[in-house]
Amino acid sequence: MYIFRSLYVMKKIIFLLLLLCFSVSLVHAKNIRVLAIGNSFSYDAIEHYLSGLVEASGDTIVIGNAYIAGCSLERHFNNMTNNTAAYSYHKIVDGIRTETPSLTLIDIINDEDWDYVSLQQVSSLSGDYKSYYPFIVELSSFVKEHSTNPSMEIVLHATWAYAQNSTHSGFAKYDNNQTIMYDAIVDATSRVALKEGINMIIPSGTAIQNGRTSILGDTFCKDGYHLEITYGRYTAACAWYEKLFEKSVIGNSYIPDNISKLQAKIAQYAAHYAIIIPNHITEISIE
Question: Least C-beta-crowded within 10 Å: which of 50, 104, 150, 232?
């Protein structure tokens, strides 16, 4: 009788412990809605691998991208002012991606109770501090005015420098020098965030620059400026994941079939150190 009673008590304790672990996991799980008012660089960073990373961690995400290729802050501002239905609205829910053409910014902002709305400058001007003004001020105010979530937070996406051999015409602005461009982006976005009281910067550019110090080298862009479609995009997504969810991406089990374990490890560490040290390059020595 004593043995049976002990077994019963033990099973009950185990059940309660499992229930407690499940409850703790629910408490720590996050559900985030993030909208990028962006261009092809936001497309590269958040539309391909971010959902998978989030799902693997037990969290959930709704991703929106107000997309126009090559769109600058000034053009976003003009679209805002004129209420122009110029956007292709890319949305990802439960990993399923849809596109809706010809929407306005108000349409897209009102579609969800966004927790975060990110802004970014077009890549060629991303290191030009003056080019952010006055547009980022007006866009931030507009988003806050029309947001349906009173706790919504503006995010600044600090994008990446071009490849060393890039032939992009905008590279000349930085003397066709990757290091000069990277430093300019870090400087510009840091100054903008400080001036505008933006508390979150997504350091995709530092994640990519970290990755370039690894054995993968300067291979993170497919055409000199857009990200390479496997580990390039995965690296940026890792940075977004860790910054938004405040969980280390190192060891995340989501590794797509088109990315090797070595490439994924380099990407995860490159992103992780970008979050820890966002304004400086960290060498990644993984083989």
Answer: 150
Nearest C-alpha neighbor of 211 from the set 244, 234, 190, 188: 234
35's tokens:
């909208």
Is residue 5 pLDDT above 80, yes or no? no
Cα of 148 vs its chain's centroid, Å: 22
- DSSP H helices in 125-230: 135-146, 178-196, 204-212
- Three-state secondary structure call for residue 183: helix
CB-side neighbour CA atoms (13 Å) of 49: 30
Cβ atoms 64, 93 nearer than 8 A: no
- Is the CB of residue 115 less than 8 Å from the CB of residue 152? yes
CA geometry: angle at 245 spanning 203 and 143, to 5°? Answer: 70
Confidence of residue 197 (pLDDT cuts 50, 70, 90): very high
Q: Which two tokens stand for residue 110?
A: 């009102």
Question: What pLDDT is recorded for position 28?
Answer: 72
pLDDT higher than threshold 90 for residue 49: yes
β-pair partners for 38: 67
pTM: 0.90
Q: pLDDT digits over 176-187, tens only?
A: 999 999 999 999
Residue 145: left (phi > 0), alpha (psi -120 to 50), or beta?
alpha
CA-CA distance, 265 to 82, in Å (whole number)? 45
Residue 97: φ, ψ to 5°: -105, 135
Q: Which residue has 């997309």 as its token pair? A: 67
Q: Write the pLDDT tens digit of every residue in 217-234.
A: 999 999 999 999 999 999
- Is residue 225 within 8 A of residue 255, CB to CB? The reply is no
Local structure of 279: helix, strand or coil: coil
